[in-house]
Amino acid sequence: MDAIDKKILGLLQEDTKKTTKELSMVLNLSVTAVYERIKKLEREGIIRKYVALLDRTKIEKAFVVFCHVKLIQHTKEVIHTFESEVVLLKEVSECFHVSGDYDYILKVNVKDMDEYREFMVTKLTGLQYIGSTHSSFMIGEVKNTSAFVL
């Protein structure tokens, strides 16, 4: 990956709807060269997919909770079972296996506290092998980006 590829990636992370023609004008390259570079980045898996980023306030998912989860055991079976169950929960947008006092951190997006309570009572605590949870609620957002600086 050279400097031009990095520039292409930076531009696409800012606005994936830019056409190859628009990119070629910014990069001072031919449309074909830009197209071929993008296709190469896709083939190599550097560009995994293209997505639309939604405004969570407009889709009633503005209440953000970071839920720390501790499992009762740490066997391969317990970890696999928990992970296969948690990925099915639509309220969970991110799940990280972490070190420290808790085993996982979940990012949960719901409408409000009532919806979070319902999620906890009917879904999360129903998962197998959960020993304890600890929830932290987002007060304000300081930085949120999906872009990587290359």
Describe this structure in words.
There is one protein chain. The protein is built from five helices and four strands, in the order H-H-H-E-H-E-E-H-E. It has 150 residues and is of the alpha+beta class. The protein folds into two domains: 3-43, Arc Repressor Mutant, subunit A (Orthogonal Bundle), CATH 1.10.10; 63-137, Alpha-Beta Plaits (2-Layer Sandwich), CATH 3.30.70. 36% of the residues lie in helices and 20% in strands. The chain has helices at 3-14, 20-27, 31-43, 76-86, 113-122; strands at 63-71, 92-97, 104-110, 130-137. The longest helix has 13 residues, at 31-43. It has a four-stranded antiparallel beta sheet with strand order 2-3-1-4.
Topology:
Blueprint: H1 3-14, H2 20-27, H3 31-43, E1 63-71, H4 76-86, E2 92-97, E3 104-110, H5 113-122, E4 130-137
Antiparallel strand pairs: 1-3, 1-4, 2-3
Helix pairs in contact: 2-3
Q: Main sheet?
A: 4 strands, antiparallel
Total helix count? 5
**Level-2 CATH architecture of the largest domain:** 2-Layer Sandwich
CATH H level of the largest domain: which superfamily? Lrp/AsnC effector binding domain/regulation of amino acid metabolism (RAM) domain
First CA to last CA: what distance?
A: 10 Å
Class by helix and strand content? alpha+beta
In helices, the fraction of residues equals 25-40%
Regions with little confidence, pLDDT below 50 for 5+ residues: none
Element string (H = helix, E = strand)? HHHEHEEHE
Outline type: elongated
The side-by-side strand order for the widest beta sheet comes to 2-3-1-4
* Radius of gyration using CA atoms only: 20 Å
Q: How many β-strand runs?
A: 4
Overall mean pLDDT score? 96
CATH topology of the largest domain: Alpha-Beta Plaits
**Total count of domains:** 2
Strand content: 15-25%
Please identify the top-level CATH class of the largest domain. Alpha Beta
